[in-house]
Specification:
By secondary structure, this protein is mostly helical. It is 74% helix and 1% strand.
Length: 532
């Protein structure tokens, strides 16, 4: 994966532009023949051609500009680019249309044209209400009340009372949305930092936090946004606690909101994309293979739609989540070699989307790809991807940091690098203990690895069978299951006991696993590995 080449905000903006946006900017700026604007075009062209930001090279390309002048010119170009984009994109965004209405209403009011301003505000209110843009509605109502309070507008008493009531109801609604969105955000932050609940103490903390922050008037929720943030909150609460059935139910409720109000897919596209990602993850966790495939096909079809390709963020995240799901599909079916075919295109696109992809997603992809290589028996390649995690910052996903090190240890064990195994065991054990990430499964694994790398092949099989027996019964323990969620240790040990590849073991489980129904969800007996 490429390091971030973009260190300058103007450079980032220029390189994020699509062809149509570049063309529009040139037309927009050339309407003015000012000398300053000609310098802006010169600066824009120079930045557009640079592969990476280099101020010294930029100054060489523009010898008439001093370093101080360059700073001012960059600032001016940045503003002009935003103005051009705003003009081009207003018709695509309800938020920008509402912002334009508000700006126009303020201008008319400041000109003393109060009745005209109120007419514009009325139009803005209808647009905000129909698209459930209640935060903007606050600003519209605030300006409308200001005009009605300071001036005689010939409005009726009844209309004034309705305005006051609407403002009050809107305020209560926004208060609930704010509390619920805060809860969803903080729960998601907890997961990004820590991963799943590690023990009873984590479980108790997350339950207390959820209970204390869930609005007491949750029964009064009404409207798209209140429900969406409520379902998101329950999703993260369930996912952190590894209650995968609850995770599925609320992911489905999240997407059902869009089924009930299809127009919201174009209004809140980002949340729809995230909801589909969570729904696919929940189906993966429950090993609902059939529905997973159905939802993935729907998501792929959405990825080709205008809504998914309207913005860079939407296009990037749709690509990330679809390919994340595709890798999950191969991991849970054991088709590792087939999954490896996805990697070149994924890495090419990640390099192309370098500006838009966050570090967390790169971390997750590195871990997933390392697992594909490990499952395919390509241990050297697995180590290469794991090194990217191990040698990077340790401020995200403590869980993945720990299991990346454990998988790294397992890969060296498979390669027979016994001279470094002992030091690796100590290092990984210390790291996981420090991060409070050790479960009985890991303790047993370390015990097995310590005792097995000097054992002859004839005596190794009984040791493997004992190890398998010790960890097999832990599958039903929720806090122990989190180890299996990141590393399919059982399939790895079974492959050695039965002299088969991991791919063969997992494919056999997939083909033979008995299905059962529970509240409308097809489930399998064993939870699936979670590779996020």
């Amino acid at each position: 994966m490429m390091a971030n080449r973009f260190t300058d905000t103007l450079f980032q903006l220029v390189h994020s532009l699509e062809k149509s946006e570049k063309r529009h900017f040139k037309l927009y700026i050339k309407r003015s023949s000012a000398k300053e604007d000609l310098k802006i075009i010169q600066l824009y062209d120079a930045l557009d051609k640079l592969p990476a930001y280099d101020e010294a090279l930029l100054l060489k390309k523009m010898p008439d500009i001093t370093k101080t002048q360059l700073a001012n010119l960059k600032n001016h170009l940045y503003k002009q680019l935003l103005a051009s984009l705003r003009l081009l994109k207003t018709h695509e965004s309800v938020d920008l249309q509402l912002s334009e209405h508000l700006d126009n209403a303020r201008i008319l009011y400041n000109k003393g044209l109060k009745i005209q301003s109120l007419k514009v505000l009325e139009k803005a209110k209808e647009l905000a209400r129909s698209n459930q843009k209640f935060n903007t509605l606050v600003q519209i109502l605030s300006l409308e009340k200001k005009i009605e309070t300071l001036h005689i507008t010939r409005s009726t008493t009844e209309k004034t009372e309705l305005l006051a009531q609407e403002a009050l109801e809107n305020s209560e609604h926004i208060n609930r949305v704010t509390r619920l969105s805060n809860l969803a955000l903080l729960l998601y932050r907890w997961y990004v930092l820590h991963g799943h609940a590690r023990n009873e103490l984590d479980e108790k903390d997350i339950k207390t936090f959820f209970k204390n922050n869930l609005p007491v008037d949750v029964h009064a929720i009404n409207g798209f946004y209140e429900k969406m943030y409520l379902y998101q909150s329950y999703c993260w609460y369930a996912f952190i606690r590894q209650d995968f059935l609850m995770y599925y139910r609320y992911s489905q409720k999240w997407i059902d909101l869009y089924e009930e109000q299809p127009f919201m897919v174009n209004i809140e596209t980002g949340h729809y994309i995230k909801g589909m990602h969570n729904l696919l993850n929940s189906l993966f966790d429950l090993r609902n293979y059939d529905k997973f495939d159905i939802i993935l096909r729907q998501f792929e079809a959405f990825g080709k739609s205008p809504a998914a390709n309207e913005h860079d963020n939407f296009r990037t995240h749709t690509f990330i989540y679809i390919n994340s799901a595709k890798i999950n599909r191969h991991l849970m079916r054991g088709t590792f070699n087939e999954g490896l075919k996805l990697i070149p295109e994924i890495e090419e696109k990640l390099a192309e989307y370098d500006l838009f992809v966050d570090r967390h997603r790169i971390l997750v992809f590195n871990y997933k790809i390392a697992n594909l290589h490990f499952g395919a028996g390509l241990y050297d390649k697995s180590i290469d991807y794991l090194q990217r995690i191990i040698n990077g910052p340790v401020d995200l996903r403590i869980d993945l940091q720990c299991y990346a090190r454990l998988l790294h240890l397992m890969a060296h064990y498979e390669l027979g690098n016994y001279e470094i195994i002992e030091s690796l065991i100590k290092s990984v054990y210390r790291f996981m203990a420090k991060m409070q990430n050790l479960t009985v499964v890991e303790e047993e694994m370390f015990r097995f690895l310590r005792s097995s790398f000097g054992v002859s092949p004839r005596l190794l099989k009984p040791e493997l069978e004992k190890f398998l027996h010790k960890i097999k019964h832990l599958e039903d323990s929720r806090f122990e299951t989190r180890a299996f969620a990141y590393l399919d240790v059982i399939s790895w040990v079974e492959s050695k006991v039965y002299n088969k590849t991991m791919s063969e073991i997992i494919q056999e489980k997939y083909l033979k696993a008995p299905k059962r129904r529970y509240n409308g969800v097809k489930l399998l007996k064993e939870p699936a590995p979670v590779f996020r």
